[in-house]
Each structure stands twice: as structure tokens, then as C-alpha cells.
Amino acid sequence: MIIRQPFFVKLLTAIWLPTIFYASAGDIHLSEVVFFPRGERPVIIELENTSSAPVDLAGYLLVDQNDFTYEFPASSVITGNGLAVVVFGFPEEEKGNDTVLWLYCTQDGYEKAFRNWTEQSCRLYSPSSTDRQPGELIDQVCWIAKNSDTPEPYCFNMLFHGYFVGGNLARYRNRKTGEYSNWYMTSEEDQSIGETNPIPRPLSVNLNVA
To answer: pTM to 2 decimals?
Structure first.
């Protein structure tokens, strides 16, 4: 004999089954970039999810000024209020804790991706932006070492602020307001890849170091 569930039982079951709600693309931000690594260390790019819901980064794009493009693979889920780290190298070059999404780019050209410290950029695009149109841009940062009369707010000019071999760019997010600080340079010792960026402390030296 076949016993059929009443409609209201099916409805309650559907309502109370656990559901995963995903945040939107606007909740993903670039938070730290190791663009000038020392020696053979890889370039590293960190992203932050500012919502409490997970985000599947599959299909998102990281693009540099020379149009090198890294596409996030399937099932690249960043947890709510979590971090994702893309290492442009192999796992043995850089490893992190298990609470962060760690990804490794070893496709052709990865050795030079995002590495030109005199004028380079990192742009983050949504999954639908295969043609990389400006309207589909989610976040970006650029770094230059040249005179610029009208620098963009997302652009860090090393002629004005200095730079360090082994240094990187980061920005701090105020947990009360949700707003980000301007991009700032950190020393190699103050890098916080795979960890929430702390309030920046003043650098003891702000000179170009070769």
C-alpha cells in the first residue's frame, strides 16, 4: 500500500530544509596584494567577503594590466566574512591555514602576472564579464611609479609614498562602518595574508629601498 504525504507535510519539509544563501558580487573586495615579492616568492592576491553569507567565486576573473587573466575554478566558495587567497605559484611555495580558501595559479605566464611594479593593476570582474566591460568591474587597485596629476582613489603612487622590496599593498576595513581605508604599503613583517588586516601601524621607514 502506498502512503502519500499530505500537501502541508511536504510544504513544511521544504520550508525547514537547510538552505545556503549566497551573497552578491558586491560583497567581494580586494584586500591585500603582494605585488613586489622578495626573491623567488610568488605574487599573492587576497580577497575578502564582507557579508555573512558564502560566495561562490567560480567564474570570477582577476586581470592585470597586460590582460593576463586568472579565472576562479568551480567550487571556489569563500565563507561568510572569510578570505580567499590566490597564489601565483605552486602550493609548496606558499601555504596557509585551513580556514581560508587557498588557490594556486600555475597557468602559462603566471610567473610575470601582476609583477610589473612600475605600472600595474589588479582588476576583479564578475562571472559574466568575459569581455571585461567596465560596467562589470567589481573592484580594482593599481600601483604606479610615475608623476600623475590626477591619480585615481584606488591607485597607489609609489613616487609619493615610497615602496619596499618584499612589501605589499593592503587596506583596512572598519568593522563598525564597513568602509575601507585607502590602500597603504606594509613592510614584509606586517603582511597579513590569510588573516584579517589589522589597523595599520606607521612605518618606521618610508624610503625607496632597492
So the answer is: 0.80
